Amino acid sequence: MEKTKKIRLFALIASAMALIFECVYPTVFIKWIVPLYAVCVLCSAVIAYLLFFALFAAKDAKKPAVSALIGAAAYTAVMMGITPLVNNVIFGAVAPWGSVLVNTAVNLVFWLVMLKLIRKKTGERFVFLPLLCVLLVAVGVPVSVVTTAPNIKATGFIVSDTVENYEKRISAIDIYENTLETAVPQTQVYDIVMEHLRAPLPAGKTEKKVLVLGWDGCRADTMIMAGNRGAVDALLADGGKAQIAYCGGANYPAPITQETATMEGWTTMFTGCWAEKHGVSGFDDVVTSKERTFFVSAIEDGLIDSAAFDFSWDTHLRTYANDVEYSKQNGLNVAWNLAEGEEGGDADEGTYQNALQDIQRPDCSDLIFTIFEYCDYYGHTYGFWNDTPEYAEAFRLSNEKGVALIDAVKARPTYDTEDWLILISSDHGGYVRGHGGDKLQERMMFIVTNK
Ligand SMILES: [Zn+2]
Fold first, then answer.
1. For residue 434, how far is its CA from the centre of ligand 1 (angstroms)?
2. 283 C-alpha to center of ligand 1: Å?
3. How far is CA 248 from the centre of its chain?
4. What is d(CA 273, CA 279) in angstroms, rounded to the nearest whole number?
5. Domain boundaries along the sequence of the chain
6. What is the CATH code for 163-449?
C-alpha cells in the first residue's frame, strides 16, 4: 500500500476507535465491568499503536512498527498507572468519575497532538483529521461527561458523609432505643430468634413463627427517612423496638475483625457467632460443618418443623452448601429458595413472591428468612446515601415489600393462635459505593422487632 494511504488509513482507524472509546469507557469504568474494561485497555493500546505508527511512518523512521510498539506500550503503561493513581490516591477510590475525567483529558491531549503531528509531518491535507478532532471533542467529551454525571453525585458523599454528620443523623432518629455507644452486636439477631423459639407459648397461642426481613446493605441512618419507613413503623406500632447494632466482629468499637460484608454478616446472624468461629471471611468460604445455621439447628433441636430461606443471590447457596446438603440428606424441611431474576430488576420481586406464597399457605414455614437486595444493589450502583434518590427509593421499596409481607402474616386465618416474631435487619452499612471496611457508616446496622 502506498505510504501516504497507509498513514491516512491508520490515522482514520485510530480516530474512529478513539471516538468509540470515549463513548464507552466512562460507563465501563464507573460500573466497573471488568471484561469490557480489559477490552478498553486493549483498545487504547491499539489506538496509541496506530497513531505512533502513522507518525513514525510519516517521519520515514526505519522500523515504524517496532517504534510504534514501544511507544504504544509506554503510553498504555503510563495510562494504566495514572488511572489507579488518580482513583486511589487523589479521589480515595470513592469517585471513579474523577479518574474518568482525568483519563479523558489526558487521552484527548495525546490523540489531538498526535493527529496534529501526523498532519504536519506528512504535509498532506487529510480532510477527515480535523473533522474527527471536532467530532471527538463534540461527541466523545459530552458523552463522557453525561455518562459520568450521575456519579458526580459521589462528590456529595465525600463532602457530607462524614462521621460527624453520620452521628448527627443517628441522634436525630427518634426510634432507636440505644445509641452508637451502646450498639448491640449483630449476633443478637440469632439470639432474638432463638429466644423467641425457646420461650414458652403465650396463653392462647399454639405455634411459634418467625419472619425476618433482611435488607442487604441498608444503613442504620436510612431510618431518618420517616416517610419511607412503613414496615419498620408497622412493627414499632405493634409494640416493637428498634436498636442500633454493629457488624464486623465482636470488639466494637475497636477495628473490625471480619469484613463489613455480605457473607460474613448474614452468616453471623444465621449462626450467632463471628467469622473466627463460623469460618466465613470471603466469597469462597463455606460455613464450617461444625456451625449449623439456625435453619437446620432449630429444626434439629425440635424448636420448629420447617424453615425457608428466600434470596436471589446464588452465592448464598455456596456459603451454606454444608447445610443445604445436610438438610437434604437428613430429610429436614428447609426450603432454600433462590429466586431467579436480574439484580436491581425482578430478582427481589421473586424473593417477595416466594415468601408471600409461603406465608399464604395454611401450613407456612415456621422460620421464614428473606433477603432483599434493593439497598445493596442501588448503593453499589449510585451510592449508599439517603440523599441519593435511588438509594432512598431502594429503602422505600424494601419497606413496601415488608409491609405487604407483614400484612400477609396478619391476614392468616390462624394468625390469632400463632406467636409471631417479625424482625428487620441488615448485614452491613455502606460508604459511597462500597462496604467492607471499618468506617462507622459501613459498620453500623440495625435490628427492629415487633415485640
Ligand atoms: Zn450485603
1. 10
2. 11
3. 17
4. 10
5. 3-152, 163-449
6. 3.40.720.10
**Residue 305 Cα, ligand 1 centroid: separation in angstroms?**
28
Distance 234 CA to ligand 1 centre (A): 24
Residue 129 has pLDDT above 80, yes or no: no
pTM above 0.85, yes or no: no
**Model confidence at 356: pLDDT above 80:** yes
Number of H helices, E strands in the chain: 19, 8
Q: Report phi then psi at 266, rounded to 5.
A: -65, -40
Residue with cell 488511572: 83
- CA–centroid distance, 127 to ligand 1, in Å, is 54
pLDDT in tens, 387-431: 788 899 999 999 999 999 999 999 999 999 999 999 999 999 998
What angle separates helix 96-122 from helix 128-135, to the nearest 10 degrees?
170
In the structure, ligand 1 is a single-atom ion and the residues with CB under 5 Å from it are 216-217, 262, 376, 427
How far is the C-alpha of 130 from the C-alpha of 115, rounded, in Å?
Answer: 9
Question: Rounded to the nearest whole angstrom, what is the distance from the C-alpha of residue 432 to the centroid of ligand 1?
Answer: 14
Q: How far away, in angstroms, is 428 Cα from ligand 1 center?
A: 6
DSSP strand pairing (444-449 vs 241-246): antiparallel
| Cβ(307)–Cβ(333) below 8 Å | yes
CA gap 121, 276 in Å, rounded: 66
